[in-house]
Amino acid sequence: MTRVLVVEDDRQTAEEIVAALSDHGFAVDSAGTGREGLLKAAAESYDAIVLDRMLPGGLDGLGVLATLRTAGVAAPVLILSALSGVDERVRGLRAGGDDYLTKPFDFLELTARLDVLLRRRTAVPQRETTLRAGRLEMDLLTHTVTLAGAPVELLPREFRLLECLMRHAGQLVTRTMLFEEVWNYHYIEPTNVIDVHIGKLRRKIDPDGTQPMIQTVRGAGFILRAPE
Amino acid sequence: MRLSDLRRTTSFRLAVLFLLLFGTAAILLCGFLFMQTRNYLAHRTDDTLRVELGPFDHMDAAQLRQLLTAHVAMDPHLQRPLALFDVKGERICGSALGPPQFQVLNHPAGQPFTFTLRRGGRTVYFRGLIRALPDHELLLIAEDMTGIRAFRSLILQSCLWGGLATILLGLIGAVMAGAGAVRRIDGITRAVQRIVRGDLAGRLPTHGDSGDLDRLAQEINFMLGEIERLMLEVKGVCDNVAHDLRTPLTRLLAGLERVRRRAGSVDDYEAAVDEAMQEIRGLLKTFAAMLRIAEVESGARRAGFAALDLTQISADVVEFYEPIAEQKNVALTRLCDDAVPMLGDPSLLFEAISNLVDNALKFTPPGGRIGVRVFAGDGGRGIEVSDTGPGIPPDQREAVLRRFYRAEQSRHTPGSGLGLALVSGVAGLHDMMVRISDANPGCRIALVGQAYQRD
Prior knowledge:
Chain A is α/β, with parallel strands linked by helices. Chain A has helices spanning 11-24, 34-43, 61-70, 86-94, 107-122, 156-167, 175-183, 193-205, and strands at residues 3-7, 27-31, 48-52, 77-81, 99-102, 130-133, 136-139, 144-147, 150-152, 172-174, 214-217, 221-224. Chain A has two domains: 3-122, Rossmann fold (3-Layer(aba) Sandwich), CATH 3.40.50; 130-224, Arc Repressor Mutant, subunit A.
């Protein structure tokens, strides 16, 4: 079972996060201060750590993170913060964080991002040149996509959209994640414009509308499901 | 206005200080003038006496006595006494000098001196010079100094009167200047008290004379205007927050009540919970947008500025919205390809331009056009979004940039009323101005920043 440590000082928020992650199927521990979090993370091995940026008691989130990395703890760390500035985000990632989520956030967003971090960790490190999902095949070198062997014409942006979905096939990809990965802007409030892009992509990879592969998760995002 | 106030005003103190400085200078000047004139007149008298004694050297005793006797007859009022004394100091002939009896031996020979005689109850001053003649007789020549002394006292008097007038005029000027300042400061104080009591529309009085107080008052009035605008905006925001949040909360409550009354199955409850979650997400979105505007307006995000290309960002926005434009059958085009570099926050600029394009898409009817143009020239650089929608009436152009402002005709279109407020905030963060104009037909909104610095 995947083990996750939540370091968050606000008890109620911590409880909600723990509940959401447990429901998602993780085994969750929580710590209320930076010191406690540090001790737990060092003593046991976690698959991922959710770390609040602002912690009381002298040792804040970035301090915990730096100490963990120095101590050789390699588990992916997702930073939670009320600070949304680009420079704050850069600082968090530079300190060794793997992802950065601004409060308030949807729990679906949190679990989706944790899934991605965990998957990245277990994925084979070698560079892939082709992605496969059901009848879809994507060649990352020639930038071509085939559907059951037949070529599919995609615009560059559609290609990247599909690539992102295929890399996380079977996982929820939120609109925010898509926007950040495909458009490279850190947009806090994703609009439904992305749905229109997805709609166009859907029609291209499923021209006759018989086998919808990209499913919409209401209020959250999209999942690429490819029946084998 | 009290007299003690007057003494404390800067104008009064300054005027008095100048009066003191000027007065001292005037006294010094008058004194110098007086001394110089007095010395000059005295020297001139002495020289005249010396010159006039000259001819007597060549006269013999008889001639001298004859001339002196004649002189006494010519000079009855002792304007210019001439007298001859023997070795003992007794007058031999010439003008009779007294009372008191003139003692020739009390004065050195060859050295001009001053002596007095009493005549008709007043003292008359004389300047005299004694010459010792070869036969040891002493010849005195003197001159009545009354005229010269009168001239001297005239100078002294004019100096005194002039000085007095200067001081008086200076004091009057100081009082007037001080009183003017006190009056104006009283006016300002009253205005400030009115404003403190809550009259936010109150302004400091100005006289339009571009004096220092006036300039200060104008600056303060400008500041008061800004404060009033912000206060009204805050008040408006509070009202609008209350209104905009009450509506979805009421809907939320109504939905929950309905499901409590009617729901019979788990499915019904789940649907209600989903609905409620959707509603709450919307509320959180509104809050997030408000907080972001506040964050943007605080300028904190300037710390994350990086070099970027405005054209690239506008291209990304256009590309992002292209599918929607296609769906709505609106032509969305970009009208410039040159790179326009600047410092900024790419995500915020993307969001601001997105909001403009999003608005344009919302209000442009099918078949219309939307143009996104990035420009850089002498008039400044920036980005402009124009559409063929209904446009914004001139009297609402400032209001639409306010938080939660919804034009009457757009009250029923979806949106939070925060989009343009964020645009305005982002523009301000990047030192840009939001300009709204007519595109004939339609609306043109431009974010205009400074032109490139010319080196």
